[in-house]
Amino acid sequence: MTQAGNVQTSLLKQPGSVWAIAFACMVSFMGIGLVDPILPAISRALEASQSQTMLLFTSYLFITGIAMFFTSWVSGHLGVKKTLVIGLVLIVAFAALAGASSNVNEILGFRAGWGLGNALFISTALAAIVGAASGGSRQAIVLYEAALGVGMAVGPLVGGVLGNLSWRGPFFGTAVLMAIALVAILAFLKLPAGAPAPAKISIAASFKALRNPALLALSVTAVFYNFGFFILLAYTPFPLEAAAHAAGLDFGATELGLVFFGWGLALAITSVLVAPPATRTFGLRPVLFTMLGLLAVLLGAMAVFHEQLKVLIILVVVAGLVLGVMNTALTEAVMEATDLPRNVASSTYSGVRFLGGAVAPAVAGPLAAALGAAAPYWLGAGAVVVSILVLALAGHKLSHIGAAHETPQEIAEDVLLGEA
């Protein structure tokens, strides 16, 4: 058998615990884009404004971001399996409660609880897969990477299909899938008996990490970048639906799900297949500047063409290609920029960037109501330009990034920790 055949065999020949975690990872990442196709439906069914409905992203991301600052401390004290189980229990409970809600404010609160569970789960999942997988860390990373990509792509599609039946469908569907994952992890997850105990980490470690100038600069860059990212993700369903209605087309949850499936698939492909060779060939900082520049242009184009359905759909999918490269490159830059412990740097960066994403949906709705449908896109483009300026001004603090002081396997693991 060829070497490639051996790799494929070892990759697929994994214990049940690994497949249980991989399945749970996929469903967890589905939750990020799951509500996208049903935002207009929730707005109509519960008589909520666009601004109120987009807060479903804000409450989720805000609590996820805050919790990320403490997840390394929690897992260090409770251990991997307990942290995974607690995270899954919270997701199941709050996803089901969101589906049973009678008004948008209830959903907002339950989405916040969902975000807490998601933060605990996704920040611990990679460590669990690495500990349980056969074939070494590289095989575990590939499986985690595949779960992330499939979840990001399939989330909007599932949300669209179930949302076409009822806006409650995606919430109940997630609760059922995560309950299955919870049972599988309880039944199958057996971490190696000789595995070292998790390192104890100070509860303030993530906050102290922001004293590092390089990490602080990249975190601020990520805040403004993620503002543009979530303007695109959380706000775009409304201009898409409006453009379709203007063209005389029926554009419901299924159609929105298909558009964002294309977006998620593009993001997954470039994050896995394009970003690593691009950063090796051109360097991290040139790739970051290029992707940020392209994203600013795309958001500006969305502002100009937000009333043209076909053009807007194309721009959304193309943006997915850019975002996939950008996510991987920025996280790799964060990991290379400091000598901080990986889990501390990852949780700090993830917490800050999720907070940046939480602000965007809260601003987009009122801005669109006050200044028109194009205004949120222009603000998103401006935020991305600010991230370019921050990255440029911090150049003297980041001149060392891109130097190969870690092995490719370690860098890949770091990137995945940050993407979580």
TrEMBL record:
Annotated compartments: Cell membrane
Keywords associated with the record: Membrane, Transmembrane, Transmembrane helix
Membrane protein topology class: Multi-pass membrane protein
Superkingdom in the source lineage: Bacteria
InterPro entries found in the cross-reference section: MFS (IPR011701), MFS_dom (IPR020846), MFS_trans_sf (IPR036259), Tet-R_TetA/multi-R_MdtG-like (IPR001958), YfmO-like (IPR053200)
Regions that span the bilayer: 18-42, 54-76, 83-100, 112-134, 141-165, 171-193, 214-236, 256-275, 287-305, 311-330, 351-371, 377-395
Keyword Membrane among record annotations: yes
Full protein name: MFS transporter
Species whose genome carries this gene: Glutamicibacter soli
